[in-house]
């Protein structure tokens, strides 16, 4: 499933999925100003937030 498809379905992404999309390490991901949701001990990221972050970075 493409990221754009996940955005329309309001899907939550795992840290591993976001790291793969952004091509970064876990330590780097933790330092990024990217909103996340904590579900108990699990951290999830909204696909729309990841897409917005990517689009914001592409203008730099």
Would you give an account of this structure?
This protein is 53% helix and 18% strand. A hairpin with a 2-residue loop joins strand 2 and strand 3. It is of the alpha+beta class and 60 residues long. Strands 1-3-2 form a three-stranded antiparallel β-sheet.
Strand sequence of the main sheet, in spatial order? 1-3-2
Report mean pLDDT, rounded to a whole number. 86
Q: Give me the secondary-structure category.
A: alpha+beta
Distance between the termini: 27 Å
Name the poorly predicted regions: none
- Helix fraction, binned, reads 40-55%
Q: How much β-strand is present in the residues? A: 15-25%
* Largest sheet report: 3 strands, antiparallel
Element pattern in H and E: HEHHEEH
- Global outline: globular
How large is the radius of gyration?
11 Å
Instruction: Count every helix, treating DSSP H or I runs of 4 or more residues as helices.
Output: 4
User: How many extended strands?
Assistant: 3
Describe the secondary-structure layout.
Elements: H1 3-8, E1 12-14, H2 15-22, H3 26-31, E2 37-39, E3 42-46, H4 47-58
Antiparallel strand pairs: 1-3, 2-3
Quick rundown:
The protein is of the alpha+beta class.
Features:
globular, 4 helices, single chain, three-stranded antiparallel β-sheet, 53% helix, 60 residues, alpha+beta
């Amino acid at each position: 499933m493409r990221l754009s498809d996940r955005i329309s379905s309001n899907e939550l992404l795992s840290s591993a999925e976001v790291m793969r999309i952004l091509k970064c390490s876990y330590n780097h991901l933790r330092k990024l100003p990217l909103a996340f949701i904590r579900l108990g001990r699990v951290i999830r990221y909204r696909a729309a937030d990841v897409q917005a972050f990517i689009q914001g970075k592409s203008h730099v």
